[in-house]
Amino acid sequence: MSLDDTLKVNGLYIMLFLRTSPHTTNNFHWGLYLHRNPQQGGTKYHIKNQGSGWIADHGPTSGVLKSFLLVGLLQIAAIPNNWEDHVDQQLRTYDSVLNDLSDMTCRVWIFLVLALLQKEVNGYKILKCTDLTALEADIMAWGNQNAASADANHQPRPVSISKFL
After folding, report:
1. How many CA atoms lie within 13 Å of 159's alpha carbon, on the beta-carbon side?
2. Tens-place pLDDT, residues 138-153
3. Cα–Cα–Cα angle for 76, 18, 54, nearest 5°?
4. How distant is the alpha carbon of residue 165 from its chain centre?
5. Phi-psi region of 119 (alpha: psi -120 to 50; beta: other; left: phi over 0)
6. Domain residue spans in the chain?
7. Which residues make Cβ contacts (< 8 Å) with residue 56, sequence separation at least 6?
8. Cβ(71)–Cβ(18) under 8 Å?
9. For the segment 54-77, what is each residue's pLDDT rounded down to a tens digit?
10. For residues 51 and 47, what is the distance between their CA atoms, to the nearest angstrom?
11. Rg of the chain's alpha carbons, rounded to an integer?
12. What is the distance, to the nearest Å, from the Cα of residue 84 to the centroid of all Cα atoms in its chain?
């Protein structure tokens, strides 16, 4: 059994990464991960700063829990079968305009795309949480709680479920 077997198929996870050592409270790099299956892994979605701007850096990964400086994964949604392509499209919505949006950061991008997942489509909402501010506080608290372990490179990295799932 691989460690990735602990991830839920079609689970959408927040990924937090350390930016400093020792950790500075609430200072994370943010990403998303959509887990497809234990054998092939899933897709990592994030943006990164390149020069004076931002670029989308999305792609498949089969070893998400081995990512450098990863704090852990916090599940925020469960994607129904056959909705994976819709979610992928929503998570790529801002890719071509990242540098046109003021005050862009990886955290800002996360909440822009999560707001899209809150919208009802055909009677269904992917992200059930209605309060993104409360979700952000939950994510930050979880990240701060697990940051020292990540800084010490303790394995395995935690995989948890948000109380807003």
Report:
1. 15
2. 999 999 999 999 999 9
3. 80
4. 14
5. beta
6. 3-161
7. 45, 47, 92, 95, 98
8. yes
9. 999 999 999 899 888 999 999 999
10. 13
11. 15
12. 15
